[in-house]
Specification:
alpha/beta; two-stranded antiparallel sheet; 10 helices
Amino acid sequence: MSFQSQSTQPEIGLVDVAYSLPGPAVDLLDWVQDQDVAPELVEQLLRNGCRYFHDGSHCSDLDLICIAVDQLMARGLNPADVAYVIHAHTQAFSAPAAPVSVLSQLAQRYGWRTHMSFSVTHLACAAVGNAIQWAADLLRQDARARYALVVTSDRVFGQAGYRIYQNSGMQSDGGSAILIGRESLLGVLDRVTVLNYTQLFEGPSDAANIAAIARLTWLQTKKLFQQHAQDCGLPVDQMGTLLTINAALPYWKLIAKSLGLGMDQFFLDNIGKRGHAYCADFAVNMADEGVRLLSEGQRVVYCAQSNVGAYAAIGWRPPS
């Protein structure tokens, strides 16, 4: 499935972006001293580019989001201009239990009176791609609305068994705020390509599914890039810089080799510097690298990848 920006309407894109990674960053080598982690696994993690992550055990989902939203407000966002709020998260438990609602907590804190607010989940780390597409679609259909705001929050509960992502990722707690609008754009939302493979929808729930995910995820991600390039009418090597989730270095190496791409087309620095903050990886990588590339006239594509068979490639181009 692919969604394209409408040339007959005003351009819609990224107005501002911020993230919150509570911290200071935790060094893997220090942290494992108090954890029951096999030395071989530590070596594999380091070999796959992992080193630092962020522990926000003292933060709530609301805290993580508000740290990011407050950054947007400090740069001029008026909460009264937010017409739509969409909350994306990876873990089903990474949201407070009813009757508490992140969306109602945010409305109470910032006083906005939105036309609509809702959550996107069960697409794991790909949920942020679907949320951004919803935000753009809602603005296209509502000429009165100035902004749609995508917020994300994800937390990890537990120690090494939950913080370590296979042998190629360290899970961070994090939140983000992504402001979508029509004016003063940092980048234009060019196209969102979404692929879903329903045979993996249960995620890593048993040994068979874990094996299937390990075998198929890189291949399905490769197909996502091929479909996105085809939809854009571009060769794969001209899609732009590929901003990945901040984990799974072996997958990106396999994808690069199979597509004939150089590793320099992938932005991978934050695998080691930031850790994998689930849906917040989009904001982390856009703020750290994507916005700069767009300002220099380059295209970027963020890859929202998951372990439940859901994928999204979010393409951005410089403003006209």
